[in-house]
């Protein structure tokens, strides 16, 4: 009987564990479930059986790795029975019950977790990037030159038997939309803070805000004129005695009125409780004057020259805003009108999303300060830094930090990046991400900062080598944007990727640029193999039913020529030549060009 009872208990324990795993997987749909305990050989150890009951694919390599590496630490690993596998799109891993063994086994399998989850979730772009990085590491391992790999071989440098540089980027080319989706996956909202209302301009409120006070908080006059107590008999002669005045913000505002009496009143002033109408001064005549001024008034009585009605020209309590009314929805940017509204209903502080600290740095031996005198020694002024820092300030980013300029050597790049990561949430770098042998950024990010490069090549022009990476420094996630060194490429990719990311992190409900349909002011006769973002000025004309996009510097929009971005108000997106047929080039003979989509560059 005891054996039968133990079997029933084990069966109940097993069923309960299966139910728990299914509930977690089906309701939460997590990427990963880690179980702890129940992997031994005692009667109550049923976690492996429960896991095996629900998984559709077992991954024995993970279990075998944990056992093999644990055996190097303790012989007790021989009696551990972990099972690892996949249920739907969830990876399930059994870990030991002891805290020491649990942490050790998690450390053993940690390096493959992200890649395994990407495979299970069918994230092809992330999988391709990992495979490319693995291929690079393989190339380094088999073709390293002596023991100096650390100094001479980087992500952008492939060493062959002849020591040749890499001729093709190891990163898959992805679309702009895919790149933006990847960025948003890693760009979390900023922390929520309480901020004084006077300091909230251009912040985004976190929560719906309801009025705790009515407005106006008293009955107020809409006009300059007289607050009157109307005669109850409409046929009574409309002559009213003036017995005082009620000024906006004045102290003596509740003067008792009898029928036929009134007080002088200003717009916005509080009405006496007994007043039941306001008559504007234009609808009155002076009936009688005082011999001498009384309380600053020389008018003794007035005659009303028009018909009047009860409660005319009176703002009652709460007419504008009543108690409990929703005055501002969450995720709204706080502009002047919004701040005025919140002040009106008595708010002193607001819960808002904080703003990120952003470092802008440059790379390259060729750069010199913008205030340097002209020289002919192969150096150019660092226009990118002032351009991007100004753009960030224009976006109302308060903490924009000059991260300096890194020389084209590993030590300088490492030191510059280290300082930047310690100072900021987001790092924007220009240069050093292309295919040159001095482009060190990507390899240093992965080797020195254990960063994950999420993409390093884009299907767009300009801006193909744009790079996005994340890493953790001092326990905090950092976002890294590696923009191309050519100034137009840097500015276009800043507009396309950095601006929406910052807005998303700061809580904007619509972080992306609005897209409109425009007609180019002149025909396009050639398309690039990649979608191209050309700089335009949006105009309106009677020649077209939709806005006209005038191409800036149409004869030369190369990525080094900032003249092609001056006064730019939009980015017109030209399709790649493989995305259109010959009809794209068939246009009307009115001098105008094709119709294309255009990103409006607002508030940037």
TrEMBL record:
Gene Ontology BP term (one): postsynaptic neurotransmitter receptor diffusion trapping
InterPro entries in alphabetical order: MoaB/Mog-like_dom_sf, MoaB/Mog_dom, MoCF_biosynth_CS, MoeA-like, MoeA_C_domain_IV_sf, MoeA_linker/N, MoeA_linker/N_sf
CDD domains: MoeA (cd00887), MogA_MoaB (cd00886)
Classification via SMART domains: MoCF_biosynth (SM00852)
Keywords: Magnesium, Metal-binding, Molybdenum, Molybdenum cofactor biosynthesis, Transferase
Gene3D superfamilies referenced in this protein's UniProt entry, alphabetically: MoaB/Mog-like domain, MoeA, C-terminal, domain IV, Molybdopterin biosynthesis moea protein, domain 2, Molybdopterin biosynthesis moea protein, domain 3
Reactions this protein catalyses: molybdopterin + ATP + H(+) = adenylyl-molybdopterin + diphosphate; adenylyl-molybdopterin + molybdate = Mo-molybdopterin + AMP + H(+)
MoaB/Mog domain segment(s): 3-116, 359-504
Molecular-function GO terms, alphabetical: ATP binding; metal ion binding; molybdopterin adenylyltransferase activity; molybdopterin molybdotransferase activity
Compositionally biased tracts (Basic and acidic residues): 157-167
Keyword hit for Metal-binding: yes
Region (Disordered): 140-168
Pathway where this protein functions: Cofactor biosynthesis; molybdopterin biosynthesis
Domain of life: Eukaryota
Keyword Signal attached: no
Cofactors that this protein relies on: Mg(2+)
NCBIfam families: Glp_gephyrin, molyb_syn
Family: Belongs to the MoeA family. In the C-terminal section; belongs to the MoeA family.
UniProt-listed PANTHER family: GEPHYRIN, MOLYBDOPTERIN BIOSYNTHESIS PROTEIN
Name of this chain's protein: MoaB/Mog domain-containing protein
Organism of this sequence: Rotaria sordida
């Amino acid at each position: 009987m005891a054996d039968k009872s133990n079997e029933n208990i084990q069966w109940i324990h097993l069923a309960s564990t299966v139910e728990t795993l299914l509930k977690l997987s089906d309701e939460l749909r997590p990427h990963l479930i880690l179980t702890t305990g129940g992997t031994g050989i005692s009667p109550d150890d049923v976690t492996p059986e429960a896991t095996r009951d629900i998984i559709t694919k077992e991954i024995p390599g993970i279990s075998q790795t944990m056992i093999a590496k644990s055996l190097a630490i303790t012989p007790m690993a021989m009696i551990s029975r972990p099972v690892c596998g996949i249920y739907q799109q969830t990876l399930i891993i059994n870990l030991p019950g002891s805290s020491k063994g649990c942490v050790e086994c998690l450390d053993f399998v940690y390096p493959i977790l992200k890649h395994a989850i990407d495979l299970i979730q069918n994230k092809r772009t992330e999988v391709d990037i990992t495979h490319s990085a693995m291929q690079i590491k393989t190339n380094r391992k088999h073709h390293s030159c002596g023991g100096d790999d650390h100094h001479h071989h980087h992500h952008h440098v492939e060493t062959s038997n002849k020591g040749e540089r890499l001729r093709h980027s190891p990163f898959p080319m992805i679309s702009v939309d895919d790149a933006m989706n990847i960025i948003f996956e890693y760009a979390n909202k900023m922390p929520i803070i309480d901020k004084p209302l006077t300091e909230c301009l251009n912040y985004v409120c976190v929560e719906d805000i309801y009025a705790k006070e009515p407005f106006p908080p008293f009955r107020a006059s809409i006009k300059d004129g007289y607050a009157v107590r109307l005669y109850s008999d409409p046929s009574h002669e409309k002559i009213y005695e003036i017995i005082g005045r009620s000024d906006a913000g004045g102290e003596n505002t509740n003067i008792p009125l009898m029928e036929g009496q009134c007080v002088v009143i200003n717009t916005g002033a509080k009405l006496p409780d007994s007043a039941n109408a306001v008559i504007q001064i234009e609808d009155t005549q002076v009936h009688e004057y005082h011999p001498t001024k009384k309380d600053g008034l020389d008018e003794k009585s007035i005659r009303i020259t028009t018909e009047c009605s009860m409660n005319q020209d009176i703002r009652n309590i709460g007419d504008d805003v009543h108690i409990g009314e929703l005055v501002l929805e969450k995720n709204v940017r706080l502009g002047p009108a919004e701040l005025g509204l919140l002040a009106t209903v008595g708010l002193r502080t607001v819960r808002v999303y904080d703003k990120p600290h952003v470092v802008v740095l440059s790379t390259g031996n060729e750069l010199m300060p913008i205030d340097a005198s002209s020289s002919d020694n192969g150096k150019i002024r660092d226009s990118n830094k002032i351009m991007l820092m100004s753009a960030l300030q224009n976006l109302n980013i308060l903490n924009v930090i000059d991260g300096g300029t890194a020389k084209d050597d590993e030590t300088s790049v490492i030191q510059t990046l280290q300082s930047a990561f310690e100072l900021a949430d987001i790092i924007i770098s220009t240069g050093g991400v292309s295919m040159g042998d001095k482009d060190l950024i990507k390899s240093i990010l992965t080797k020195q900062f254990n960063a994950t490069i999420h993409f390093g090549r884009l299907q767009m022009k300009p801006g193909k080598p744009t790079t996005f990476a994340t890493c953790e420094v001092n326990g905090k996630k950092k976002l890294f944007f590696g923009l191309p060194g050519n100034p137009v490429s840097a500015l276009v990719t800043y507009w396309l990727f950095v601006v929406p990311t910052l807005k998303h992190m700061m809580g904007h409900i619509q972080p992306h640029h609005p897209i409109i349909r425009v007609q180019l002011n002149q025909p396009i006769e050639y398309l690039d193999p990649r979608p191209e973002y050309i700089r335009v000025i949006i105009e309106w004309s009677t020649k077209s039913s939709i806005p006209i996009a005038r191409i800036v510097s149409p004869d030369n929009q190369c990525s080094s020529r900032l003249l092609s971005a001056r006064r730019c108000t939009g980015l017109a997106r030209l399709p790649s030549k493989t995305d259109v047929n010959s009809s794209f080039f068939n246009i009307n003979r009115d001098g105008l060009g094709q119709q294309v989509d255009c990103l409006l560059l607002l508030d940037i």
